[in-house]
Specification:
Probably part of an ABC transporter complex. Responsible for energy coupling to the transport system. This protein is an alpha/beta fold. The chain folds into two domains: 239 residues, Rossmann fold (3-Layer(aba) Sandwich), CATH 3.40.50.300; 224 residues, 3-Layer(aba) Sandwich (Rossmann fold), CATH 3.40.50. The chain is 34% helix and 24% strand. It has 17 helices and 21 strands. It has a six-stranded mixed beta sheet, sandwiched between helices. It has a six-stranded mixed beta sheet with strand order 17-18-19-14-20-21, with helices on both faces.
């Protein structure tokens, strides 16, 4: 169906540096292909070439040929290409055209000329099959990142496209949303559709993907069948820059950080204006400086609300918070806290990477900027505009800004989303170095591998309450499995 023959590509703004080099790949009708590899290996660029975003929106130099059903892709308009594929982007907001979810589900189907009665039937069918009825007729801005991604996937199902291209669709999903995504992919596959998916989180694809294509620095280095990929050891995966694919492969943190002081939280309550019920009702808990604490739980458990209260973004919080028996005012606490949010697009403000770091630390030197960016693997992009970076690279830039703020309490909301295995492990090392320097590191995450590798302690939230707190170690793996097994 799809023939990629000797394709090379470089973006205009990269001074001829090639993002794709001599790519050769054939994809059969009905095949499910996973593109995997370290951040910056070329996965997203290849996806953009296939769905026409390159070169129609991102210009550059292309050589080689891509054929779909024996027709050159490069000779077709973006309108024609949109009829060939359904696309799901890493950040669903970048593909939304409507304010209302039901209108969004109908939008692409309307544009390809599907009859209105069929559109309504397909919307109802997708909502029922994927349990999305509660998301219909809602503002897209009311939805969580995971819910927005499910709407983006469902809109592709409504169109009935026989080829679906997805760019890291799981990066912002909790375990429940990931189960729904997996359900969608299995249904698409059972209907004989072709699926091309670029991913870092590979564990949920083990019983779906037929082929795993490994990329590195713009090249395809390996093409493995499903069975061959399952035979890879943990060391093999790490060598490719990939993540663990099973709970059993997890490498748990061996050396635990020691507490360097305690933040005591008591009588912690919060409710949204106009609501009768408490959104948060936290039992007394102690959070340690000098350690990394992972906060886990399903979407809607209250994790992000809890973090917004600590940062001072929610003013109606009631709590008694002390350090060394000294009572903290809300203002005192908020001045100690810096948070990196899940959607970092809204947290990058300047025209350059260098200026972004200077917002957090006006005294930072050129050498310190290079050192910090090198620690996070983005020093080679220092000349680029922050919003031109990939999702994982923007995440690391926001993390760099947090590190330069020198606040005592650093909160990270899904910091490993969009990160490959190597960069996830680098981030784990960096956060633990900060903890050892006396910072309190709080990590809100759905990433089981990151929890195992990085955290000293794990706090589980459900329905606005902390229901358990325990030490991160292999003996507690059954507790992790409850929240990370699909």
């Amino acid at each position: 169906m799809i023939e990629i023959n000797d394709v090379s590509f470089s973006y205009d703004q990269t001074n001829g540096m090639q993002q794709l080099k001599n790519i050769k790949l054939n994809i059969e009708r009905g095949e499910v292909v996973c593109l995997a590899g370290a951040s910056g290996c070329g996965k997203s660029t290849l996806i953009r070439l296939l769905n026409g975003i390159v070169p129609n929106f991102f210009q550059g130099n292309i050589s080689g040929m891509i054929k779909v059903d024996n027709k050159s892709l490069f000779d077709q308009s973006i309108s024609d290409i949109s009829r060939l594929y359904g696309s799901v982007f890493q950040n669903p907001r970048t593909q939304f055209f409507c304010l209302n979810t039901t209108s969004e589900l109908a939008f692409e189907a309307e544009n390809i000329g599907m009859p209105p009665t069929q559109i309504i039937e397909r919307i109802n069918q997708s909502a029922e099959r994927f349990d999305l009825e509660h998301l219909l007729n809602r503002s897209v801005f009311e939805l969580s990142g995971g819910e927005q991604q499910l709407i983006a996937c469902a809109s592709v199902y409504v169109t009935g496209h026989r080829c679906i291209i997805l760019d890291e669709p799981s990066s912002n999903l909790d375990i429940m949303a990931l189960k729904k995504l997996k359900q969608m992919l299995k249904l698409w596959k059972s209907e004989g559709n072709t699926i091309i998916i670029a991913e870092h989180r590979l564990h949920y694809l083990l019983d779906i993907a037929d082929t795993f294509v490994i990329m590195d620095q713009g090249h395809i280095t390996d093409k493995l069948t499903n069975e061959s990929f399952k035979q890879l050891t943990t060391d093999d995966l790490h060598q490719f820059g990939l993540r663990s694919t099973t709970i059993e492969q997890l490498q748990f943190k061996s050396l635990k950080n020691q507490s360097q002081g305690t933040l005591n939280i008591e009588q912690f309550q919060f409710k949204y204006p106009g609501q009768k019920d408490l959104a948060l009702n936290i039992a007394p808990i102690k959070l340690n400086f000098g350690t990394v604490t992972a906060i886990v739980g399903d979407n809607g458990a209250g994790k992000s609300t809890f973090s917004r209260c600590l940062t001072g973004l929610e003013r109606k919080m009631k709590a008694q918070i002390t350090i060394d028996n000294q009572l903290l005012r809300s203002k005192d606490l908020s001045q100690m806290v810096f948070q990196v949010f899940q959607d970092v697009n809204n947290q990058l403000f300047t025209e350059s990477i260098e200026a972004e770091l200077r917002l957090s630390n006006t005294a930072i030197t050129e050498g310190q900027i290079i050192k910090r960016l090198r620690e996070l693997g983005i020093s080679e992009h220092i000349e680029r505009h922050p919003l031109s970076l990939s999702g994982g690279e923007m995440q690391r830039l926001a993390i760099a800004s947090a590190l330069e703020s020198n606040r005592k309490i650093l909160i990270f909301d899904e910091p490993s989303s969009g990160l490959d295995g190597n960069n996830m492990r680098k981030l784990s090392v960096l956060l633990n170095e900060l903890a050892q320097a006396g910072h309190m590191i709080l990590v809100i995450t759905h990433d089981f591998e990151f929890v195992a590798d990085c955290a000293d302690d794990i706090v589980t939230m459900d329905r606005g309450q902390i229901i358990e707190s325990y030490v991160n170690k292999r003996q507690n793996i059954d507790r992790l499995e409850r929240y990370f097994t699909i």
